[in-house]
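[audit] Reproducing an earlier prediction to check determinism. Same input, same settings, fresh worker. If the tokens differ from the archived copy the diff job will pick it up downstream; this log only records the rerun itself.
[audit] input (174 residues):
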Amino acid sequence: MDIDLRAFGGSALTGEVAVPKDRTPADIGTGVPVTYVPARNLVFLSIALGWAEVLGARDLYLGVNALDYSGYPDCRPEFVRAFEQLARVATRAGIEGAMFTIHTPLMAFDKAGIIGLGTSLGVDYSLTHSCYDPTPAGEACGRCDACVLRLKGFREAGLVDPVRYAATRAAGTS
């Protein structure tokens, strides 16, 4: 299923708004940034909930994080708990007594903890990137909030990020 949130716009990730660069980790944690995609996790969870109900599943998993995040309101425990309550009243299964649980195994981890967990599970981080504004060649910019937080996480985990970065200064190689 294709879900194209660019139809909503309203975000540096889905519209023509510039992606902020060179913010400090302290600045990243204040306010809701222009990279917030309106209702993104609500849309994704709504689709997952519908599919889960059809399958008879009652457990949904969401990879949000409330410690090292960019201030997105739909990454907080309050959002997850409210969605669980909504699932109880918005679905046939819910009004018939089924309980849906949204599991957020990464919620209380910082980025270093997430990176360490992924490493212990064999994640090949060279196949991933978190960049909000990659180059046309696919290199991470090294300067957007997602790159700053990822690089900080790798540093704090005592690991080197294997991703290629366009901005070597931000990647810590110069």
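[audit] rerun output stored. Observation attached for the diff report: DSSP finds six helices and two strands in the chain.
[audit] end
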